Amino acid sequence: MEEDYNKKEMEEEVMINEAFQTLIESYLASKHRKKVELITKAFNFAKQAHKGVRRRSGEPYIMHPIAVAQIVCQEIGLGSTSICSALLHDVVEDTDYTVEDISNIFGPKIAQIVDGLTKISGGIFGDRASSQAENFKKLLLTMSEDIRVILIKIADRLHNMRTLGSMLPNKQYKIAGETLYIYAPLANRLGLNKIKTELEDLSFRYEHPDTYKEIADKLQATQLERRNVFEDFIAPIKQRLDEMGFVYRIEDRIKTPYSIWNKMQNKHVAFEDIYDILAVRIIFTPLKKEEELNECFDIYISLCKLYKSHPDRLRDWVSHPKANGYQALHVTLMSAQGEWIEVQIRSEQMNDVAEHGFAAHWKYKEGGGSEDEGELDKWLHTIKEILDDPQPDAMDFLDTIKLNLFASEIFVFTPKGEIKTMPQNSTALDFAFSIHTFLGSHCIGAKVNHKLVPLSHPLQSGDQVEIITSKSQHVTNAWLNYATTAKARTKIMAILRKEQRTAQKEGEEILNSFLEKADMDASTTNVEKLCKIHELASKEELLAAIGSKKVILGNADLDALKEKNSSPNNWKKYLFPFGGLNNKKEKKEKDYTLMPTVNPKEIDRKKPLELTEDSIRHNYVIADCCCPIPGDDVLGFIDEKNRIIIHKRQCPVAARLKSSFGNRILAAKWNTKKTLYFPVSLKLTGIDGVGVLNAITEIISRQMNVNIHRLSFETNDGIFEGNIQLNVHDVEDVTTICNNLKKIEKINTVTRVDR
């Protein structure tokens, strides 16, 4: 036994040293100053600190810091300070060493980064809901102090995602959900396109393994066909670039399973209907460095002589780079086979920034700063502004920040001709707040291209915007409906909160005076009774409503307060979203407030919840935001009242829950055996004609013996669009119905949609 143990220990030692040697080789191949001795010192220190500790997968723990350091070095392009920090990133969190120890041995800069990483350890969010907003603020604060903190944290998350298979399913959903919600957008905003893409794809793979495999198999099956299209398409391009004297390479870029699935979901189309799976990337070395931008356009012009270009699909990010530093010229060309193919034209330097992010070339990189650092500084400044007015609610805070992460940019002009970069879908109100808070809070309208428009007017690239103000204008709740940027929403909510505090103060004075006159006091019982009478959730809402004169206290309130056994009959009923859970398809109503609760500590999280006929009827709530049915990938969520709610894994509400309340997520699986009925909605499109509607109802009602709850069709110029609500047993029923409906000659598409 001891001999086997020693053998295993020696094998692991070899594995660790080989991994570290690979890291050193990657570092030596970079352009950074060669501080191998410092990196070796950090490795030996971390190795000793983590000695005897193993990951859940069974491998020695030190393999994780080495892997993170490898990503930091090779895939992000950072130098020795970041590599050492990556090797040491878990030492303070998991061992007895302190930040002071790190500072004494490796210096204050590495210690500062390790300290930043320690503060946000365990993911952005801890296990307690109350700490989430605070942890996220710490992340953003440390990021604004030293961008390397978040870059190393993203590398840490990438390695965790690559090794997620050893985790329990509910942990996989939590980590994958958190990754999609925050880490992928952060990577995107920092220009780490390659990492962003991998994070999305890995999250998709763990949350929807069957769908992922299905799409991956279809990509594999069509690979040869795409390769032939690619070779035929680039042959004349290569000839033309050779004639122009360029040193270049041409790559095919295939959409990932996640991006394909995302498009299938958003556009309600099948895999076979997605036509932009293939794109072409031309990466060239400039003939003259100072002519780099012009040479992008020279290549573009030569391509347009070979193939016809799409007039509406030229994207010039060469003249106006994206806020994350991305530069390229995108053009869509018609191939000889009649397919539109996107071509991305970029220089080697542009490609480097596109893949690794300009953050890696920023001011911290040895050897100087970056010409792009202005845009990153602007973004970090916006983050700091948002932190000045943080949202009290963790999810509001997260959503506000997230608005700043995943947005394409447009370019708009001030009246004096200054150019401003704004997120896509920005409104006139967003523009006003981007200039100044006073301008935004007193904005009554705008002139866009000299034409008067309302606050809600969406801006387009190239618009010239002039803001019109009035001193009498005040911020209202309605503004949140058409403020889309993080800065605008943060400022609006801060102003509204200030007004609400004033209203609450006035409301408290009015309430106390009202109760004093009736010889009563503002006890908890009396306040709760008033909240129930006026259907308000909390004391704060009641006071604000009284202070703003939305609630006027009177004799009816006194009468209710004087009744000892007063219990207003305003129970809220919960109607199961599936209109009938038995074979008779009866519509059953359940009292949501009386749904059974669970003790989270008693749940066996190692086993998925089993969704049987009985448990669905009596133990769980089917979420009406996404209406999952048997066969859908689902999860359970323990809400604040300890009820278990069943969501689709891709449900937007579930996405927020996974990223903020991960400790309440449960794995779940169906076991209903076609005993219950659930509602689904189908969307159909096709060519209108005699007998089409009859053929549809014939298949659904007679052939499939399925009850139609609702049917609506609309025809326009010979094309119809229809919506059908049905009761089915499971996803298999939906697939069979869709396939049968597609056989009707005049039907073009049949897709399931969320209600």
- The rough form would be described as globular
Oligomer: single chain
| Total tally of structural domains | 6
Number of strands: 21
Known CATH architecture of the largest domain: Orthogonal Bundle
Radius of gyration: 30 Å
User: Mean of residue pLDDT?
Assistant: 81
Characterize the biggest β-sheet.
Answer: 5 strands, mixed
Structure description:
By secondary structure, the protein is of the alpha+beta class. The chain folds into six domains: about 190 residues, Hypothetical protein af1432 (Orthogonal Bundle), CATH 1.10.3210; about 140 residues, Beta Polymerase, domain 2; about 100 residues, Ubiquitin-like (UB roll), CATH 3.10.20.30; about 70 residues, no CATH class; about 100 residues, no CATH class; about 80 residues, Alpha-Beta Plaits, CATH 3.30.70.260. About 50% of the residues lie in helices and about 15% in strands. The strands form six sheets. A five-stranded mixed beta sheet has the order 1-2-5-4-3. The protein has a five-stranded mixed beta sheet with strand order 13-17-15-16-14. A four-stranded antiparallel beta sheet has the order 19-20-18-21, with helices on one face. Strand 15 and strand 16 form a beta hairpin. The chain is globular. The chain starts with a helix and ends with a strand. About 5% of the residues have low confidence.
